[in-house]
Design a protein that fits this description.
The complex is a heterodimer of chains A (649) and B (243). Chain A has 649 residues and is α/β, with parallel strands linked by helices. Chain A has 20 helices and 19 strands. Chain A has a domain of 220 residues: Cobalamin-binding domain (Rossmann fold). Chain A has a 6-stranded mixed beta sheet with strand order 2-1-3-4-5-6. Chain A has a 4-stranded parallel beta sheet with strand order 15-16-17-18. In chain A, strands 10-13-14 form a 3-stranded parallel beta sheet, with helices on one face. Chain B has 2 domains: 120 residues, Pseudouridine synthase I, catalytic domain, N-terminal subdomain (Alpha-Beta Plaits, 2-Layer Sandwich), CATH 3.30.70; 108 residues, 2-Layer Sandwich (Alpha-Beta Plaits). Helix content of chain B is 23%, strand content 36%. The two termini of chain B are 35 Å apart. With 243 residues, chain B is α+β, with helices and mostly antiparallel strands. At the A-B interface, helix 9 of A face helix 1 of B.
Chain lengths: 649, 243
């Protein structure tokens, strides 16, 4: 059933009605048949943020290629539209055929940010489905989630039927088959489908597990049903080259973020930055063959009409032969010479800037680097091994090639961080401005400061997050330090929101009541600063009889049970613990892509390994070695001798 | 070489903005490899000249766009090729945008925004009976002067909008409300549909709105910027595709 006739008269009453009409180039024509499991793939934020999500677009295509599956898309209606929908009794709908959510079998969300959780509850409610799993009947929607946040799904465990860990390309088909079978058999019993889903590797069904607490501490999370495995393993596709998706990237009619062609050049990263969850949970590195990248770029540009392509990954400058690939793209005569290539997440060195210079011939406005921390000591702790010389060489290269604005990303609230480290940020920024003055009259540097939130399955998962007050103090310390520096602009993320993020990042099932409470008090779009409301959170935490301290600020101990111990990202817990000890000892760890394996666990035992075209690292900077690697990858990357600390010593 | 494109905007896509449509055109031109000319300078942009903006939510069977093509290009279409370009552009455009005619025009032709003197609209007013609307129309047309204060670029501007009302007539009842045909002058400022409805009746709600025609004056005679195919005022084919 389509809600379009009821929806259409409302479109004139809301902001940006194009959010709700679909009609994108690349949109599929869904065919709903009784034998096919119908997915409504949702992103719990606005259309502009959600549409470009590559994960959802990949699943959308894969499901629609199957005879036993069909998929449509939905996004969080903005507050004005939500008001209209509720006032007029219209449910959540798909943007493809404006079909009511309840006419699907599965409503599945990509979870990329903790602060979107309340939007998930809101969308489930708008779909006409009970928000709590326990209250759902056999014919209600199955609520699923995937994406990076699902490595700790416990805060949302009460609201979801199933959770997918890892790459979705293969497992989405397995889930489709199981749900299609259940649908054909008449959806007799919800427990039956829960059990069947739990039998799929990579799928976690929270209701089949009990979380056991003792004296306010989590003891363990154990299966309460024989169908549920004791440990749920993540899924990893061995070869990205087998999955050239999305084949028909959606081209929206209205402006969205990342409004360009996006081609994923590799998945996974083993630089080993200790704060970075993405770099831990997506191992190993799997490069797309360079020829496939070229084909996807050329055909994608031709089909979409975009004049910009982003080569995406966690660190695109590390792609084997990246310079040749971008040169080929820019010089492709088929593309008319007006194509610009963007490299999100630039590595900090002059070589990388050189590539950027070649491809951004016009529109040379700003470049962004992420040194992450203000001193070399601090960067050793977090294993982001960029020397000051690397940064200055990158900045010099950028200014000399015509860029005028630099943006530098830093984290604050990192383990062992002192005020010297915080003030080190000011020093770096000043030196960058000084370099800029050699080339331009008014160079500008924007320092962007984010509060560090420890994430599951990282070496910092044991670290107690800085309090709101401490983060604010450090931010003001830096602000005061930079007050007289005219070329430097400081921006920061609200520490109050950082607290809420940290609360859910490492929370357990007891947070379900808090989330529901925040949502019931109107706390949607918490990712948006104009909607974030700390009082909603602190009040809900208090009403639940919980304390911020226990979930956010407390250092975890080696032997305590973590809420995600029954899930596996492949990484050995003792590897992470060792890396945590190494961090505290300020010892770096090399990138295992080009050096021998240190057995983190992500490859061994799964029959997978790195897929990289080059056995030596790409050129550029020192890459943490203290050696000059600017000439290229002839020199094997070996870290400077550190002072390793062994557990128990 | 400058060409003028006539197109429709009907169905769901009417909820995109004027700016959205401009971006859609940029991508479409690249998709069909039309050799558009680019401006010179630090950030070159394609030379596209749009006519009067159509409000988000309004349909039209008479939209126009002028494009400057790159004379030096090897793939510059000849005048005779322009007929083939019509279906080619339509198939590269999203559903609901449909090209109905293309022609070469003088490179120094007056811009659409200046040349168009008036537009004809079909406007639905929800929840009101034809007799009521007819009465309101008669009342408006009877007065010699209609001083209205409107916001223009953040400032209050008071002027006489009576000269903008060229023709107003009730068409009939749609089931949801009353449809009228309105012929409104566009120079120097124009009159918004929402402003017209507010003048007709306080609190009256705008329903479906469609631009039927745009008119220029050529030596005193009314003519279209570019004639569409016969029967272009209804565009049943385009509407069916886009609904």
């Amino acid at each position: 059933m389509t809600v379009w006739p009821q929806l259409e008269p409302l479109l004139g009453k809301v902001q940006k009605p194009a959010r709700y009409i679909g009609c994108e180039d690349g949109a599929q024509t869904p065919v709903h048949i009784p034998e096919a499991a119908a997915w409504l793939l949702g992103y719990p934020d606005t259309y502009e943020i959600g549409l470009p999500n590559q994960g959802l677009q990949i699943l959308y295509e894969i499901v629609n290629e199957r005879s036993d599956g069909v998929a449509e898309r939905t996004y969080a209606p903005w507050t004005d539209m939500e008001e209209q929908l509720r006032a007029n009794g219209i449910p959540l709908f798909s943007v493809d055929s404006h079909r009511a959510a309840a006419d699907f079998d599965i409503l599945a969300f990509n979870l990329s940010a903790e602060l979107t959780y309340t939007n998930v509850l809101n969308m489930v409610d708008l779909a006409g489905c009970p928000v709590r799993t326990a209250d759902r009947s056999a014919t209600d929607l199955l609520i699923g989630v995937g994406g990076h946040c699902t490595y700790n799904p416990e805060p949302i465990a009460d609201f979801v039927d199933f959770v997918v860990l890892g790459d979705g390309e293969e497992v989405v088909g397995e889930i489709t088959a199981v749900v299609a079978h259940w649908k054909v058999s008449g959806k007799q019993d919800r427990l039956e489908i829960h059990r069947a889903l739990a039998g799929i590797t990579g799928v976690y069904v929270p209701s089949l597990y009990d979380a056991i607490f003792n004296d306010g501490m989590l003891v363990e999370i154990v299966p309460n049903d024989p169908a549920a495995p004791a440990v749920v393993e993540k899924r990893t596709i061995a070869d990205l080259g087998e999955w050239p998706y999305p084949k028909n990237q959606l081209v929206p009619l209205t402006e969205v973020v990342h409004d360009r062609l996006n081609v994923e050049v590799f998945r996974g990263c083993t630089r080993g930055c200790r704060f970075c969850q993405a770099g831990m949970i997506t191992r190993p590195v799997r490069e797309r063959p360079a020829d496939q990248v070229r084909t996807m770029v050329a055909e994608g540009l031709k089909r979409t009409g975009y004049d910009e392509v982003a080569l995406t990954s966690l660190s695109t400058a590390d792609f084997s032969g990246i310079d040749q690939v971008v040169r080929d793209t820019v010089n492709d005569p088929d593309c008319g010479g007006q194509i610009s290539v963007s490299l999100p997440s630039l590595r900090v060195d002059a070589f990388t800037v050189g590539i950027a210079g070649e491809i951004q011939k016009a529109r040379r406005t700003g470049l962004t680097f992420a040194p992450e921390a203000g001193t070399w000591r601090m960067r050793q702790v977090i294993n982001k091994l960029i020397t000051e010389e690397d940064l200055y060489a990158a900045v010099r290269s950028a200014y000399s090639q015509g860029w005028r604005r630099m943006k530098l990303y830093f984290l604050t609230g990192l383990p062992t961080e002192t005020d010297e480290d915080t003030l080190g940020i000011a020093k770096l920024a000043r030196n960058c401005v000084a370099i800029g003055k050699e080339y331009h009259q008014n160079p500008s540097v924007t320092v962007s400061l984010g509060g560090f939130v420890p994430k599951p399955f990282t070496p910092f998962q044991w670290f107690g997050q800085n309090t709101r007050e401490e983060l604010q103090r450090k931010i003001y310390l830096l602000r005061d330090e930079l007050r007289r520096d005219h070329g430097i602009k400081l921006k920061w993320h609200d520490p109050k929101a950082t607290m809420a993020e940290g609360f859910m990042s490492r929370g357990d099932r007891r947070l379900g009541v808090v989330l529901e409470d925040v949502w019931r008090h109107g706390g949607t779009f918490q990712e948006w600063s104009e909607h974030f409301n700390l009082d909603l959170w602190t009040d809900a935490i208090e009403r639940a009889g919980l304390r911020e301290e226990d979930f956010v600020y407390r250092h975890r101990t080696e032997n305590e049970t973590l809420p995600w111990d029954h899930l596996s990202a492949g990484l050995h817990k003792d590897f992470l613990w060792q890396d945590w000890r190494d961090a505290l000892a300020e010892v770096g760890l090399e990138d295992c892509r080009w050096t021998p394996c240190y057995d983190c666990g992500a490859c061994t035992g799964y029959g997978i390994e790195h897929v990289v075209a080059s056995a030596v690292p790409p050129a550029g900077g020192s890459q943490g070695t203290g050696q000059n690697l600017a000439a290229g990858g002839e020199v094997p990357v070996v870290l400077l001798p550190g002072k390793p600390v062994r557990v128990g010593v | 070489m400058r060409i003028r494109v006539r197109f429709t905007k009907t169905g769901k896509i009417r909820w995109t903005s004027h700016r959205d449509v401009a971006r859609i055109w940029e991508r479409t031109i690249r998709r069909v490899r039309l050799p558009i000319a680019y401006s010179q300078g630090f950030s070159p942009h394609p030379k596209m000249h749009f006519g009067l903006a159509l409000s988000t939510g309004h349909e039209s069977v008479a939209e126009f766009l002028d494009l400057d093509l790159d004379e030096a290009s090897e793939v510059l279409p000849k005048s005779a090729d322009l007929v083939a370009l019509v279906p080619q552009l339509t198939s590269a455009l999203p559903v609901g945008l449909e090209v109905t005619a293309i022609s070469v025009i003088e490179s120094n032709a007056t811009s659409l925004q200046q040349a168009v003197e008036s537009c004809e609209w079909r406007i639905e007013i929800r929840g009101v009976q034809p007799a009521e609307v007819a009465e309101a129309i008669a009342g408006l047309l009877a007065v010699p002067e209609l001083m209205v204060t409107r916001q223009r670029k953040g400032k209050d501007v008071t002027d006489d909008v009576r000269p903008y009302l060229l023709e107003l007539a009730v068409v009939g009842f749609t089931g949801d409300g009353t449809e009228i045909d309105a012929h409104l002058a566009t120079q120097p400022r124009g009159l918004r549909i929402s402003e017209l409805i507010a003048m007709l009746g306080a609190g009256w709600e705008e329903g479906r709105v469609r631009r039927l025609n745009q008119w220029m004056l050529l030596d005193g005679a009314r003519c279209e910027p570019l004639a569409g195919p016969p029967g272009a005022t209804s565009a049943p084919h385009a509407s069916a595709r886009a609904s």
